[in-house]
Amino acid sequence: MKTTSLLICSALIVFNLFVESILLAQSVVRVDSFYMPSLGRTKKLSILLPTKYDPAKQYPILYLLHGYSGGHDDWLTRTKLREYVQNIPLIVVMPDGENSWYANSAMEPNERFEDYLVRDLPQYIHKLYSIDTTRQAIAGLSMGGYGAMMLGLRHPSKYEFVGSLSGAITFPRGMSDTTRPAERSLFPSLRRAFGEKPNNSRNAHDVFLLYRQTSKDSLPYMYMVIGIQDGYRNFLPAYRAFTDLLRTYGASYEYHETQGGHNWQFWDREIQPLLRRMREVLKF
After folding, report:
1. Neighbours of 14 (CB within 10 A)
2. Which of 102, 160, 206, 233 has the fewest CB atoms inside 10 Å of its own CB, making it the most exposed?
3. What average pLDDT does range 236-262 have in this prediction?
4. Which domains does the chain possess?
5. pLDDT in tens, 172-205
6. Confidence check: pLDDT of 19 > 80
């Protein structure tokens, strides 16, 4: 009996050490909220910290944006992102952009989501964590993929790397085309973000125009990938046209067409090579 008890105790100790090692190896998830002056209200955000976060060190940062109808916890609950970054010295910040298209609304003066993303949020994060401001990246999927590219091109000095997975870069220029059933549900939010009719706001947020406003050497590195079976059928030709423009301009970019659709299976897979490429570009 004594030998059996000792064996059981030893097994429990080994099991506890095993569980503890798994927990220690995981990235630290924090859900936070703070008052956003640009919106006049408090919003939640999710943050992934490195396994052994050390405030004495400076860490690269990735702002990772969700898609239409999503939220700040999408990347954590619908992909294995936490597993993918557990051994990377990186801080990942996932804000809640609602269905804003990450722009200052042309219709609602109090909905300044671009100001929130590029001003309020970084100020808040930099106060709490040790950030290497020379290694900042922004990426996202679908609406967030558009948002990452738009914000990266409008504020090229803030980001060294921009990533877009299935980004909706057909907007806002494609708002006049209401014949595509798959996209009709997006139009109320698009009009709220960019206005009812063609205007300066639409031009100012059109990635097909934005890239030319910055010299090619000052543009962030752009990483883009889209599924060949993407349900938004005009996204694929839009990417082909856009990358043709970038190539002619001499910008630094990377573009991939891979098997897959407009879904979480695709994004869960493609976020992994994006992270690897981001590390290579930012050199960490």
Report:
1. 10
2. 233
3. 98
4. 27-282 (3.40.50.1820)
5. 999 988 777 778 899 999 999 999 988 899 999 9
6. no
